[in-house]
Every structure is written in C-alpha cells, then in structure tokens.
C-alpha cells in the first residue's frame, strides 16, 4: 500500500501543488486584505485622524484578538458545514472590513464614528481571516487527501507570508495614490473576485462521525500547541524587535535581516515539501528546533551585522517547518471529524504566543537589555526540542 502511494505521489507532485494552490489561493486573498492596510492604518489613525499611539495600536491589535478568539469556532464550523462554506463565510468577513474602511473614509469629518467603523472593520477582518485560513487548509486536505496534509499546510503558510510581504508595500502605494477610500475599494474588489472564484469550485465531503467536544480536542492537541508556542516566541522576537536590536548596536540593515528571515522561511518550505511525509512530523520538528535555536544564539552573540543576518536566516529556516510538522501530528491525534477543530485550536497557540511575546519581551528588555531576549527565546526553543525528543521516544516505545 505504501509503495503504491509513493508511486502515485512522485510523478504527480506538480499536479498536487496545482490542486492545493487552487484552494489555498483563497487564504492568499484573505491575507492580502490584512497586508494592504497594515503599514497604512497606524499612521492614518495617528497623523490624519489625530488620535494618539494607543488608539493607533489598538486598531491594529483588534484584528489579532478577533482572530485568536474566533479560531476555535472556525474549526468547529469547518467540521460541521464543510470547508468551502467556511472559506466563503470568512471572505465575506474580509469584504465587510473593506466596506467599514470605505465608510470610515467617507465619515472622516466625524472622527469618533470613523474610528468606530475602523474598529468594527478590524474585528470583522480577524473573524474573516480565521475562517478563511482554517477552511482553506481543510479544503486543500479534502482535495488531495490527508496523506499530503503537511504539503497543504506548507503551501498555506507560503500564501500567508507571500500575501503579507506583497500587501504592505502595495497598500502604501495605493494609499499614496488615493487614500483610505481607494485602499478600501481595492480590498473589496480582491475579496469579491475571490468569492466569485470560490463559489463554483466543488466542495469536499466532511466526515459523518460524531465530533468530540472542544475540551476533548484540546486535551489531545495541547502538547503540540505548547511546542508551537515555544517556537513562535523565537519568530516573535525576530519579527518584532530585530529593528530595535540593530538600532541599539548602531548597525544599518535591519530591513535586510527581516527579508533574509522571510526568504529562508519561504525557501525552506519550497525546498523540502515532502520531508514531513518522508521522515515524520516529530523528527522534522526536532531538526527545525535545533536550527532555530542555533539562529537565535547567533543573533544573541553577534558582534557584526552579517552575523546577525546569518542568525535571522537560520531562525527563519528553522521556524519554517515547525508549524506543518507539529500540525500534522496534532491533526492525526484526533478523529477525522475533528480535524478542523484540531487545526484551529493548534493555530490559536501560535496566535496566543505572538500576543504574549511582545509585551513580555518588551518588559525584559527594559531591565536586561535587548540581546538577552534572543538568549531566552533560544533556551525556550531548546526546551521545545527536548520535549519533542521525549515525545517521539515515547511514541516509538508504544508502537
């Protein structure tokens, strides 16, 4: 049976990727609606609307909070309704965010109303993203089969980071050309096109088994979620604080360091698309934790920009496959009818980790300096490596 699946998988790798991309493109669209206003809204709220930095930060943070709180519901409804309906529902949430931005721009003479509309738009966007992201992953798995779940999660991540990387500069350009109103119109057009493309696509059949309650799902996947949260702290300190790290050292090129991190992240997923199927999720995760920890140790010890760049590169490469590697193991820990809930709950650990990392690392930095946060996050990733090693050994003993 395994020989047959291998023969089937190798000649059709291009076809597999094509089928996966035809579905995860909807997650690309949802993340494009996140990336486009990301570099624009804080400045708009602060400089144009005249609110202070707290409100500018709140407008951005509302989307992350909304995503975190709605993820378990996205997974549950993906299991109940099927992934296609959940994706379309999520895209309508993204569309609502664009409508709210447009109304906020049109009500600029009433700053309080305008700010309220922006906040509603950000909340709708968070819900839309969690539904579209979870649904598109499960839709992809339904299209190509659960054997290729690691490949689906990897491509979904590439779409996510690709859309964010493209969206931020494109959003700044659109805002320069026509302000918030033009940006809102572009967001609405992107989502409408995505919905029109999604509607005719065939849906996939869900499992008819009785789903487990949320507490039971959480009980099965929390060890994998905890490991993901530890690894995400390393990602968080690079993405959030590397600019401050470079400033403190008096070095130029922090943006290039972030580019190297992103390129390594995407490149690793493209270079090793079948590694999880071949070696197993936990074994791949152990290697990834080792590479990520090494990268963070190098950043901590760096005495020149090229060394810090190398550390950021290794951190991006190491973190790249952690999510799909552990995600495969988490999803396999529950029955098929609970895969949506498992994936969404698992992802929420990353959301929570990134939400906590910023303020905690900021607090530590204020007392112990910036470099120490890279040492502490490297030690946290090493702990994740040891726990994964122990988990893998236990699994091997029981099988």
TrEMBL record:
Keywords: Cell inner membrane, Cell membrane, Membrane, Transmembrane, Transmembrane helix, Transport
Bilayer topology: Multi-pass membrane protein
Predominant place of localization: membrane
PROSITE patterns per record: MFS
Species this protein is from: Pantoea alhagi
Protein name per the record: Uncharacterized MFS-type transporter B1H58_06330
Domain Major facilitator superfamily (MFS) profile: 19-396
Protein localization: Cell inner membrane; Cell membrane
Record's keyword annotation contains Ribosomal protein: no
Transmembrane segments: 20-42, 48-65, 86-106, 153-174, 180-200, 221-245, 251-272, 284-303, 309-331, 343-365, 371-389
């Amino acid at each position: 049976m395994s020989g047959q699946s291998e023969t089937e998988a190798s000649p059709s790798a291009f076809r597999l990727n094509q089928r996966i991309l035809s579905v995860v493109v909807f997650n690309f669209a949802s993340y494009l609606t996140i990336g486009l206003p990301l570099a624009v809204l804080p400045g708009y709220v602060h400089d144009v609307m005249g609110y202070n930095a707290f409100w500018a930060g709140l407008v951005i943070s509302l989307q992350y909070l909304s995503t975190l709180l709605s993820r378990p519901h996205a997974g549950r409804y993906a299991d109940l309704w099927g992934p296609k309906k959940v994706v379309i529902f999520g895209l309508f949430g993204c569309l609502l965010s664009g409508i709210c931005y447009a109304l906020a721009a049109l009500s600029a003479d009433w700053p309080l109303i305008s700010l309220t509309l922006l906040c509603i738009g950000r909340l709708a966007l968070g819900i839309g993203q969690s539904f579209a992201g979870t649904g598109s992953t499960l839709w992809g798995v339904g299209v190509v089969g659960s054997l290729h779940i690691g490949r689906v999660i990897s491509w979904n991540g590439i779409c996510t980071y690709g859309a964010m990387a493209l969206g931020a500069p494109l959003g700044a350009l659109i805002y320069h050309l026509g302000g918030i109103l033009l940006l809102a119109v572009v967001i609405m057009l992107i989502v409408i096109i995505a919905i029109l493309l999604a509607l005719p696509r065939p849906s996939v059949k869900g499992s008819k088994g009785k789903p487990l309650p949320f507490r039971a799902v959480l009980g099965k996947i929390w060890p994998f979620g905890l490991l993901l949260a530890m690894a995400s702290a390393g990602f968080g300190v690079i993405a959030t604080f590397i600019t401050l790290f470079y400033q403190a050292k008096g070095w130029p090129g922090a943006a290039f360091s972030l580019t190297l991190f992103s390129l390594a992240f995407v490149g690793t997923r493209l270079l090793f698309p079948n590694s999880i199927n071949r070696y197993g999720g936990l074994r791949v995760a152990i290697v990834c934790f080792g590479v990520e920890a090494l990268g963070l140790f190098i950043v901590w010890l760096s005495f020149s920009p090229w060394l810090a760049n190398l550390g950021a590169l290794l951190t991006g490469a190491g973190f790249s496959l952690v999510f799909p590697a552990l995600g495969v193991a988490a999803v396999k820990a529950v029955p098929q009818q609970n895969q949506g809930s498992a994936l969404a709950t698992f992802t929420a650990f990353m959301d929570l980790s990134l939400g906590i990392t910023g303020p905690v690392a900021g607090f530590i930095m204020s007392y112990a300096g910036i470099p120490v946060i890279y040492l502490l996050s490297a030690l946290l990733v090493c702990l994740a490596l040891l726990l994964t090693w122990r988990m893998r050994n236990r699994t091997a003993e029981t099988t």
